[in-house]
Amino acid sequence: MMDVSRSAASMKNSIFLFTDIEGSTTLWEKFPERMRGALAQHDLILRRTIEARNGRVFKTVGDSFFAVFPAAGDAVAAAADLQHRLLAEPWTEVGESLRVRIAIHAGPAESRDGDYFGPTLNRLARIIASAHGGQIVLSKAVVDLLGSRLRATAKLIDLGEHRLRDLVRPEHIFQYIERGLREDFPLLRSLSAFAHNLPGQLTSFIGRETEVAEIKHLISRTRLLTLTGSGGNGKTRLALQTAAEMVDHFANGVWFVDMAAVLDSTLIATTVATTLRLREQPGQTMMEALIAFLRGKRLLLIFDNCEQIVSACAVLAEKLLKACPELHILATSREALAVAGETTWRVPSLPVPPAQPLDSFEKLAEIPSVRLFVDRATSVVPDFQLTAGNAPAVAKICRRLDGIPLAIELAAARVKMISPEEIALRLNDRFRLLTGGSRTALPRHQTLRAAIDWSYHLLGGIEGVLFRRLSLFYGSFSLEAAESVYEGPDQDSMDVLDSVSRLVDKSLLIREQSEGTPRYHMLETIREYAFDRLRDSGEVAVVQKRFLNFFLKLGQAADKELSGPAQGKWLERLDAEQENFRAALTWNVQESQFRTAQLQLALALSRFWLVRGNWEEGLTCLLRVISPDCVRQFDRSWALNSCGNFACQLGRYDEATRHYEGSLAIRRELGDQRGIAATLNNLGNVYLHQGDYETAEPLFSEALSLLRKLGYEPGIAPCLNNLASVRVQRRDYAGAEKNANEALEIFKKVGNDLGVAASLAELGKLAMSQKEIDRARSCFEESLALSRDLDEKVGIIGSLQSLGQLMMTQNNYESARALYQESLSLASEVAAVPYVTTAMDALEALNQAQPGDAAEATRH
């Protein structure tokens, strides 16, 4: 296993120098051709000067240089030399000097593959962003290392402490000057230089770089932008970070107004005025005073936590924006303000690790939700590290908490008491576990439950009922499904539509992007909270019955269509509902009517599970829901037949035979002729798979005879296919051709593309047996295309292996190996043991036929 712990040996103190050309974008616009030569000369000067002072350029990005030095004196001397040489250069190509800003900082950094990483470099990037072209700025850490070792003509100007974007701790910055260098510069571009009341942040801002960039772009295009999202999703922090990065865009400042404590909506204008230090003037209302002050000013107001007085916030925002053309408002709320001209932007959760383990530690450590957990855990346990031992647990925590920043921060705080592994185990009781947030935070941000309580208590009557009941949906769901769990005597479908819409607006539901029917889902954390509320209401049993009845009707409707022309559409619909089917089938409700409905649902899904390769799931589910004391014999025979189908695909032939024989006995007793024929056909398949053609053929023939008497074409065609397969093995090619073609015509007639694919596969095997290579390839490829289109696992695997066999007969070992390798991967995924064995035997034969890299291919 890879050791993913950070090596302390790779962390050391170094002196770093960053450079950047101020206004380079403008120069490129003015002189697109000549800037190439100027930049080449700039690069040569920087590289030579840095190296002459014992520095090493470890990276360049655009026109920026990043260098490391062994001593502070060397770095400062290099900076001074650079500015002198840049000033002396004529720069005739661009008609003016290149204004290069230089910043120097010292601290620990991680060295990896010739590059450096860590907070020291992040801080230096913010320091240089605050400087101006031609200026040299040093951090206090560098000044302390310099001591009194300055050039005789040099001096330091103390620029004071500055709050820099995205940095928790302010930075004490100095300007280095000497004879021949410019001394007078504007104020540094730090938060301290602009009018604002943004609260200082005590924790670092993690991730969200893309989100900040998008929000900044939106603010430049709209005058009212509302950030929406569920509780604890980081709306406020994201708004503050974005505002901090835009303070220089608003000449009259950026002002933060917290609406959380405003309980009386009539005081909202007063709250904003107080933030701006305005007083009510004689003869003016507070609103009039506010408009008079803001009119003509380019200013950004942040309205935070608008949801409890959303209507009042909407009225205020609309009045101010109409009267003050230079004003911009950035609001945070769990629902939109619904004002004309408003742009809403839903704050997403932080990206979480995938379910499958990543192939490198660096990839896991850079995922924003993991970074947040590690950062907050380090704040309570300073020596906490992400290691090989705890990384899987941290990844699981972040996934199960849906990337919700508040939830992750509360989980990380528990590291001072229990390990990440224990935290992950206790997340089934997450609302008791995730408490103990900052005492100074808003009460609703001190526990995860409180954060969601805040949203729940703002819901109306129908919204609250529907919110609770929708917690039964483990996967996504349609509006029709939502209506089914809300059923009531006075139900109006528009009430459900409006309520779902409002739950989406309030960020308690998420609308999924899709081309077809809209679907919705809850984050798992929200869903668990809603289910707790459903349990408290005493409605669980009645809503479960409605839920099960809805999906039973859906499953039974689908089962009737899966052999016809609409099978593709219905397979996709069932795919979307798999998590909900699983939920309904695992509820442990002892009521006999409920258990019967679960069995009927499992039976209705049997064909779907068979197509999708969910054989183990189908077998396990059916055996669990069959209860001899409450199951009709007809249903029991159907269930045993389906169990036989799944066991046969899994290669458990003895078990399959036992299930089929049990089904056949019941069906003979009931006189169910169609059922008898189906089970005989399936039983024949068991022997066909094992190569016992003498036993298989009479079973297929008996089934076919019964079905022809009944005139049941959808059942006749599979029997014909199976007989064709037997006759190919017995070299009765004429009989096989007749059977397979008749089956193909029937499948086409009823619109069963899965059946068409199966018939084409049989015709391909027949052609291959007769050495009709082109015809065989055409049949197999067409069969494979149809099976892929419908994602029918057995058809895909079988066609791949048939094509592989065909390639082997042509000595095309490379193509054969690729086909068998793909089939092996898919067969292993669905536990299709017979196909796995076939693929491995074929690959071994290929290794012997063409040794070398074949053995390596087989191992993967």
Features:
860 residues; alpha/beta; eight-stranded mixed beta sheet; five-stranded parallel beta sheet; 16 strands; 57% helix; disordered C terminus
Short précis:
It contains 39 helices and 16 strands.
Task: Describe the protein in words.
- The longest helix is centred in the middle third of the chain and has 22 residues, at 540-561.
- Helix 32 (713-729) packs parallel to helix 34 and helix 38 (833-849) runs antiparallel to helix 39 (853-859).
- By secondary structure, this protein is α/β, with parallel strands linked by helices.
- Helices cover 57% and strands 11% of the residues.
- The protein contains 39 helices and 16 strands.
Annotate the secondary structure layout.
Blueprint: E1 11-21, H1 24-30, H2 34-52, E2 56-61, E3 64-69, H3 72-88, E4 100-112, E5 115-117, H4 119-130, E6 136-139, H5 140-146, E7 154-162, E8 171-178, H6 209-221, E9 224-228, H7 235-244, E10 254-258, H8 268-275, H9 286-294, E11 299-304, H10 310-323, E12 327-332, E13 343-346, H11 361-365, H12 368-380, H13 391-400, H14 405-413, H15 420-425, H16 430-433, H17 448-456, H18 461-469, E14 477-478, H19 479-486, H20 493-505, E15 510-512, E16 519-521, H21 524-537, H22 540-561, H23 567-576, H24 578-586, H25 592-604, H26 606-612, H27 615-625, H28 633-649, H29 653-670, H30 673-689, H31 693-710, H32 713-729, H33 733-750, H34 753-769, H35 773-790, H36 793-809, H37 813-829, H38 833-849, H39 853-859
Parallel strand pairs: 4-6, 9-12, 9-13, 10-11, 11-12
Antiparallel strand pairs: 1-3, 1-4, 2-3, 4-5, 6-8, 7-8, 14-16, 15-16
Helix pairs in contact: 2-3, 6-7, 8-9, 12-14, 18-20, 18-21, 19-20, 19-22, 22-24, 22-25, 25-27, 25-28, 27-28, 28-29, 28-30, 29-30, 30-31, 30-32, 31-32, 32-33, 32-34, 33-34, 34-35, 34-36, 35-36, 36-37, 36-38, 37-38, 38-39
